Amino acid sequence: MRVALSSDSLTIANMSEPVKTRPYDSSSRAERTQASKRAVVAAAHELFLARGFAETTVDAISAASRIPVATVYRLFKTKTAILKQVIDTAVVGDDAPVALGDRSIVKDAQAADDPKTMTAAFAHVARRVFDNTAVLRLVLRVAAALDTEAAALQDSIEQQRQVGQARVARALAEKGFLASGLKEAEARDIVYTLMSIDTYRILRLEQRWSGARYEKWLANALYQLLVMPMDA
């Protein structure tokens, strides 16, 4: 007499066979996510430069990057967050999680053994950063007048610039390179003024100075105003 097995019996019997599952590869998923972020950032960079902030939509970024719009929102949440990542990447030239102040180009400038070399090195840092970001910063400036999130990003970047550029005055002061009678706080104000996006915009974008001419002028201005004796 054949006895029919219940569905429970069949389930128990099947469990005796090992269940084959595909191993979860978190590294591959992370690489795909990073590749998607890079595609979005690259596409957004071009669109922001060509169209500005207001005319660049997330849909347009999605289409240009070939990343689904839902994925773009999942990765960045807002258009302003995309612009932030575009600017952050442009500042250092890559998406590695290492701040500009922790990179060798800044560390080497801080370690310079004479003031002329130090001011020239910091001028080079400023030129490189502004060459990569000035137009994007101007895009953000326009956006900040219309969008509260963009305005908050603008304020945050300016605060970061103030903190970062204070390293110039600090490095000169620590090595004893500041001009006699010049306090570090005043030196910070001078650096903040000279190494500003507005000074760069006037000389490079409006007056069309070459990058080399701007860098040489900035190095000389920093040296004369920060290092040379005040009565020289």
What does this structure look like?
The structure is a single chain. The chain is mainly alpha-helical. Helices cover 71% and strands 0% of the residues. It contains eleven helices and no strands. α2 packs across α3 (58-65), α2 packs across α4 and α2 (26-51) packs across α5. The longest helix is centred in the middle third of the chain and has 30 residues, at 115-144. It is elongated. It starts with 6 loop residues before the first helix and ends in a 6-residue tail after the last helix. Mean pLDDT is 89; it is low at 1-16.
Biggest sheet architecture: none
In N-to-C order, the SSE pattern is HHHHHHHHHHH
Instruction: Evaluate the radius of gyration.
Output: 27 Å
Query: What gap, in angstroms, lies between the N and C termini?
Result: 115 Å
The helical percent reads over 70%
Low-confidence regions: 1-16
Number of helices: 11
Number of strands: 0
State the secondary-structure class: mainly alpha
Mean pLDDT: 89
Morphology: elongated
| Strand content range | under 5%
